[in-house]
Amino acid sequence: MIGGILLALGQGWGVAALLGGAGLVLWHARPVLLALVLLGGAAGWASAHAVLTRPNALTPWFGAQVTVQGEWDGQFLTLRDPPARVTLAPKPTQGPGQLRVSGRLLAPEGRRTPGGFDQAAWFRAQGGLLSVTPGGALVGARVREFQPQGGLRGWFRRGLTTGLTERQGALMQAIELGDRGDISREQFSEGEAVRDAFARAGLAHLMALSGQNVAILTGALILLLTRLGAAPAWRFGLPVLLLGPYLLLVQSSASITRAVLMGGAVLLALALGRGRPDPLGVVALAALACLLLYPLWLTDVGFQLSFLAVLALTQSERVAGRLPERWPRWLRLGLAATLLAETGTLPVIAGTFGQVPLVGLPANLLAGAIMALLVPLGFLAGLLGPLALPLNVVNGVLADALLLVARTFGQAPVLTWGQVGVGGLLAYGAAVLAGWLWLLGRVRAPAALGTWLACLLLTTLPGRLHPAREVVFLDVGQGDSTLIRLPHLTVLVDAGGSVGSDYDVGAHTVVPTLRALGVRKLDVLVATHADTDHIEGAASVLRQLPVGEVWIGQRKTDDPVLTAVLLAAQERRVPVREVRRGDQVTSNGATLTVLWPAGHAWSTEDNDNSVALRLESRGWRAAFLGDLADLTEERLGAGPLDLLKAAHHGSRHSTGAALLGQTSPADTVISVGRNTYGHPHQDVLTRLAQVHSRAWRTDQLGTIRWPVP
């Protein structure tokens, strides 16, 4: 089935999957099963094809200002007419319920930065044979009417939050319902988001409903029924009957659907007296059911993490058996399960999130003990609804304890990782094979350990043998952020920003891109001038990555955005340097020189005080001009250029004829996004064409990577 889905997606790996299935049939000398292999491939292809070719009912309204009404579940707004689902940006502060909202309807975007969010692919993965694929995003969303969610879900949500603080209630909704809308807005302190702390501590999975929730809830119910003396048919059959309503109550996802299917199969077998089913068979059954109905879940990170973790956990007993027998069994199994889950999901976590937590083992052991109490008590509070006030006194204490664990371990350093390529996957496969052979007793521990170390070393060699030499113009929408990568010198010029929005471009766009590119630290962070769209994201970059020093031009004391950046630098003990014309730094034959500001006088216009830079390497020259206006550009003396970073997003009053006459750039990059300012202006594009300079735009091409000689 996986092979058929991949073929429908146009992936050649699908042939390999189908041949693998056929090979297993021949290996077991049961050619009659070949028909099932072909049937599975056909079913996978047909299911995926049906979802991929379904017309989008929202297409005629793309680009239009619309007002729509539907059911908001915290993630999607489900419309009745036309039948469709959309996301809202910014997300409403109101909880789930009926919404009437207005905004501009836009088509989903693909991945525009390395390691960035591929909205279009994620939308496709949320559709299935029985559910509508999300069709668009409503941006600039303004809520006109709101009616809180009623029915069982409304009652349950009130029970989870009554008597609790906003942060406690947001955590309970994430843990019990999988609704992470409120917790995404919570912060421990300025720049310290709660969800980021959970991710750095290796606890992000706690806010995604999974097998842990199902196991704890069914385990508590089975324990209660056992104490009441219920027969096995009731002891295991009743939880099976309740799993369906539970799945309808919570937010549907790949991980919780997988857990319900697997849990239902195991409990049904026990209720019927058939014993425990084969673990791999149950995993395969759940995967078949999920992929038949939701074929594009195969591309969803949640699906991949869920099934990889469960497959790894099937070896818990083997690993626990290798640990000292004098240790308590619960401790050995806990250690084994945590290590296996982290190892099994390592390539997906490293490649998708650009970082690997280093404290996941102790953090999960402590958090697991808290969750064992919090999940069933929270579920009971939900069933009690507004009557749960006395119980939530206990739940509030447990929620605070879990938040404390996340905040404490979330302050630990993480291992930064870049994108995982074919070589990395091969090294990971070799390491897993060595570990598997060690578990089977086929190889000794020193040989397995040596293989692991060798694979780890091999993954670090490419970056050291061939260090990057490039300029990366990040697509941060209507803003600026440029990365200069040289051996022993990494410079980030600006970090974007989002005017009039609470979206943190630094945390959610710039930092993930840097991690995907394998950037572990910055030698210099340049804040060109006090404009939100250039430097607002710099504070988050400072808080999440090591930075050598910050360069600024004018030190304004009355600008809140620049003040926030300087405070973040002070918190991290990063020195701040006020650069002037002629300052420079060199690395491996390349020189980065400050062209502006002169520093003896300041303009009342922030744009005219921008830090401008020139990069020279082996006869190749590029300039980065911030938001300078044309009159200031003429005074730079930039000299002939191979590459020009156009000032002020292609504004009419920048990239003037005098500058172009002095520099004659062969290529010009314009960092620009959707805007109402008319950027880039047609006059600028005309001037570039007149000097035969090719224009490259981030709004059309996404992130642009330019090699440096």
Automatic annotation (TrEMBL):
Annotated Metallo-beta-lactamase domain residues: 478-674
Single GO BP term: establishment of competence for transformation
CDD domains the UniProt entry points to: ComA-like_MBL-fold (cd07731)
Membrane topology qualifier: Multi-pass membrane protein
Superkingdom of this protein's organism: Bacteria
TM ranges: 7-27, 33-52, 214-234, 246-272, 279-297, 333-353, 365-384, 391-410, 416-440
Organism from which the protein derives: Deinococcus soli
Compartment(s): Cell membrane
Full protein name: Competence protein ComEC
Keywords per UniProt: Cell membrane, Membrane, Transmembrane, Transmembrane helix
GO (cellular component) term, any one: plasma membrane
